[in-house]
Write a structure and sequence with these properties.
The chain is mostly helical. It is built from twelve helices and no strands. About 85% of the residues lie in helices and about 0% in strands. Belongs to the binding-protein-dependent transport system permease family. One of its GO terms (biological process) is choline transport.
Length: about 280
């Protein structure tokens, strides 16, 4: 007996077509606003001379993590500069910073709400499981009809892909606050807002920072993949090397990605330890 095939793909395509046609003005407005923000941040970083930005990053690393990370940052960024990948590195850094900011702004309120509401927690967890297990390439497909080819689609796909860890860790951190401290706050007559901002969030901040660290790492990996839909940066250098069969150029861009990932990871970890 033949079982009729469920036309799930056709339903999804019809839904995307309806959304893009009905909300085209909204998506165009979001696209223009996002592209303006990307251009402003990218132009600001490009305006600084290479040596000046390198010095600022080294100073930041020294203040947050010490001399060893500052020396490593100088050596790694100097190598990227020497390889002629400074501008692609800046473009990648811009996309990662912008996508992380958007993801964190969305994730923190959702994570707090899920931590305080068991009903919302039961609803949001399966959605996060779905978002994290879906292959990264799939997120590139709906980004194109909504925002077209380019950096805005890369930001859209990156935010969706990198947001779940920030939500999970925020929820986990707040739910792990000892019950005794919550009861003590209740005994002193603290309101719900006072308990959240003066007890739960400060105590859960190291866990929240760990989630933000994971979000940054996922954002960096997704920005590289998003070169397939026209995103600029180191990912486009890797993609160009694949198309032209130049393994040397691909490895150079890959090494630059590794250096940038290590630098961002160490910075966020040191910031987490400082807050803790």
């Amino acid at each position: 007996m033949d079982i009729p095939r469920i036309p799930l793909g056709d339903w999804i395509e019809s839904g995307l077509t309806w959304l893009t046609s009905e909300y085209s003005l909204v998506t165009r407005g979001i696209s223009r606003f996002t592209q303006t923000g990307i251009d402003v941040l990218n132009d600001s970083l490009m305006w600084l001379p290479e040596w000046a930005l390198l010095g600022l990053i080294a100073l930041l690393c020294w203040k947050l993590a010490g001399v060893r990370l500052a020396i490593g940052a100088v050596a790694g960024l100097a190598l990227i500069w020497n390889l002629g990948l400074w501008n692609p590195m800046i473009e990648t850094l811009t996309l990662v910073v912008f996508a992380t900011l958007v993801a964190v702004v969305i994730a923190l309120p959702v994570g707090i709400a899920a931590a305080l509401s068991n009903r919302l927690y039961r609803v949001i967890m399966p959605i996060l499981d779905f978002m994290q297990t879906m292959p990264a390439f799939v997120y590139l497909i709906p980004a194109i009809p909504f925002f077209g080819i380019g950096s805005v689609s890369a930001i859209f796909a990156t935010v969706i892909f990198s947001m779940p860890p920030a939500i999970r860790f925020t929820t986990l951190g707040i739910r792990q606050v000892p019950v005794e401290l919550i009861e003590a706050a209740d005994a002193y007559g603290a309101t719900r807002g006072q308990k959240l901002f003066k007890v739960q969030l400060p105590l859960s901040l190291p866990t929240v920072m760990a989630g933000i660290n994971q979000t940054i790492m996922l954002a960096l990996s997704m920005v590289v993949i998003a070169a397939m839909i026209g995103a600029d940066g180191l990912g486009s250098e890797v993609w160009r090397a694949i198309q032209r069969l130049r393994p040397g150029d691909g490895f150079e861009a890959g090494i630059a990605v590794v250096i940038l990932a290590m630098l961002l990871d160490r910075l966020t970890q040191s910031l987490r330890k400082t807050r803790q």
